[in-house]
Write a structure and sequence with these properties.
A five-stranded antiparallel sheet has the order 4-3-2-1-5. It has helices at 84-110, 116-131, 159-174, 187-202, 206-227, 234-240, 253-267, 274-291, 307-333; strands spanning 33-38, 41-53, 56-63, 72-75, 79-81, 178-179, 300-301. The chain is globular. By secondary structure, it is α+β, with helices and mostly antiparallel strands. Helix content is 49%, strand content 11%. Helix 4 packs antiparallel against helix 5 (206-227) and helix 5 (206-227) crosses helix 7 (253-267).
């Protein structure tokens, strides 16, 4: 299952649904078994809950037979009723995808007979095509249907950090607040401190860690504007990153953590031996365990254009609290 853009993902999580009001009744109900598009394929899924978000119905679905990490919010355009007709459509799509995959596999086997010079030229062409964005990609920047689950690197994010990801999303997407920049510590400082820690602990082994951290820094600087920002953060990014300043010297732990969610997709395109990949996974997990002790930002700064809206919401909350207290005092008096 390729990773498609989630309803509230860091790339396009809060896109407006337009001015047309949603229907009062949901097309799909909680617990209903449905068929859902994910990339070019169709999967069986179950609707966990339905909500009106940004003036349209959104559904939180679980793909049957898949890890709950793939659960996501989707719109009605991604779902179909679980009918006999739609199941046949699913089978047709799966058959077509399998056929296309076999054709591609056959072509790749033919290229093995080429000379080393030709093979090198082909690799350069593929590399250039990917870098220029010629292939059809989804919102997260990864070509749909091109990466299998088996090839994705397994990065187990600790539960405390998963909660931080949810809180981070809530601050930006729901409460319309942004991280105050520049952050302290920055991504660059976090990586440097971790390298110092490993150097004292493991000595020479820190050399390989240093190379990995350089790679993380490079991935972060390149990926941040492409797939790690929510829509409401883009203006702040354009104001903060000027004169070729590296994002890793401005942003902090909140955005670095988002990178680890996308990292499996990015590493899937890197030709790494299985044994090396397993060692890399262990090192990344150790890094994540260490950054759990970091103080994630809880003081958020709303964009200037949203300050008045925030004040209005605060006044409403204060009014509700006042009414509640009055009712309590009256009950006590009775």
């Amino acid at each position: 299952m390729g990773n498609s853009s989630k309803d509230d993902s860091a790339s396009s999580g809060d896109a407006s649904a337009g001015d047309v009001p949603p229907s009062n009744s949901s097309l799909y109900s909680d617990g209903e078994k449905v068929l859902a598009y994910h990339g070019p394929r169709i999967y069986e899924a179950k609707v966990q809950k339905a909500e009106i978000r940004k003036r349209e119905w959104k559904y939180f679905v679980h793909y049957l037979g898949w890890n709950k990490n793939w659960d996501e919010w989707v719109g009605e355009e991604r779902l179909m009723k679980h009918t006999e007709e739609n199941v046949m459509k699913q089978q047709t799509v799966d058959k077509k995808q399998s056929t296309d995959k076999n054709v591609k596999s056959g072509r790749s086997s033919q290229t093995k007979a080429k000379s080393s010079t030709d093979a090198k030229g082909d690799k350069e062409d593929i590399k250039n095509n990917v870098s220029k964005g010629k292939k059809r990609k989804n919102d997260s920047g990864v070509e749909k249907g091109s990466v299998t689950v088996e090839k994705l690197v397994k990065i187990q994010i600790p539960a405390t950090l998963k909660k931080q990801l949810v809180d981070d999303w809530d601050f930006v997407a729901e409460q319309e607040k942004l991280v105050k920049l520049p952050r302290s510590p920055t991504v660059d400082e976090i990586l440097t401190k971790y390298l110092e820690y490993k150097s004292k602990k493991d000595g020479m082994a820190a050399d390989s860690i240093g190379e990995i951290l350089k790679g993380i820094r490079c991935y972060f600087d390149k990926a941040l504007p492409m797939m790690l920002l929510y829509k409401k953060e883009r203006k702040q990014y354009s104001e903060a990153i000027v004169d070729n300043v590296s994002p890793s010297t401005i942003y902090g732990a909140e955005h670095l953590l988002r990178l680890f969610v996308k990292l499996p997709e990015l590493l899937a395109y890197v030709n790494i031996e299985e044994e090396t990949m397993n060692r890399l996974q262990l090192k990344l997990l150790d890094f994540l365990k260490k950054i759990r002790v970091l103080s994630f930002c809880q003081h958020m700064m709303p964009p200037k254009s949203l300050k008045e809206k925030a004040r209005g919401r605060m006044s409403e909350k204060q009014s509700l609290i006042s009414v509640f207290l009055i009712v309590v005092f009256l009950m006590i008096g009775i």
